[in-house]
Amino acid sequence: xxxxxxxxxxxxxxFKKLPAWLQGVVNAFIGMxxxxxxxxxxxxxxxxxxxxEAFAAFAPGPALSALWGLxxxxxxxxxxxxxxxxxxxxxxxxxxxxxxVGILVGYFLPVRQVANMPFQFLRMISxxxxxxxxxxxxxxxxAAIIFLLVMATVWPIVFGTAHGVQRIDPNWFRVARNLGAxxxxxxxxxxxxxxxxxxxxxIRLAVGVxxxxxxxxxxxxxxxxxxxxxxxxxxxxxxxxxAAMVVVIGAIGFLLDFIAVKLIKRYSxxxx
Length: 272
What we know:
- The protein is mainly α.
- 81% of the residues lie in helices and 0% in strands.
- The chain contains eleven helices and no strands.
- Helix 6 (131-137) crosses helix 7.
- The radius of gyration is 24 Å and the shape is globular.
- The mean pLDDT is 84.
């Protein structure tokens, strides 16, 4: 036992000497290896059970084989394009609405006091609960889905922005006024640089929520997108393709989150 502990200690010490980027790569491989192993075990259990053996295509082998075939087809890329288009448009309007509203809520105390309760009430409503209203209010399915994504993205951005404005040192505003800054200069030179980290953190949360909402939202009458592909694969009992689409959704979601983290580090002076 002591020999094993000593070996583990030496391995840990050697690992800490590696460059930080290499440690990150090793940790990522270990984590994904564990996830793949658990997926493989789950596939074996499903296949060995007579009640669930029809779903054996969910296992890593069939799923990754189907994914490889999809990568070479235009169907997958058209599907991804449709979903990313809806996400980006929904996120754009979430930012356009959320950042100005968040600045108003964070900067003006009366606005914050009046808006707090209704905003908290609306925030707790699931974006998918707006689906019947979206279908009635918009002429196209795409517009209805984008509306649902806006409802998913706007609240993290509003509250993240408002929190950032409230954290600004009041002395900064006094100095800016003493130097003759007008409202636009106050916004551009003081508020926006100070809240950059909070805004991008809110956008990161918004992307995560929107990506989760997207799949069930695309169960609506559209004939494109990752949610539609999942639903279609389920209806046709094409379980290996369904599992492959789940992998694609996870990979794109991870990439979007990675981009958001890089934006936080790149454009926020709060991050070292």
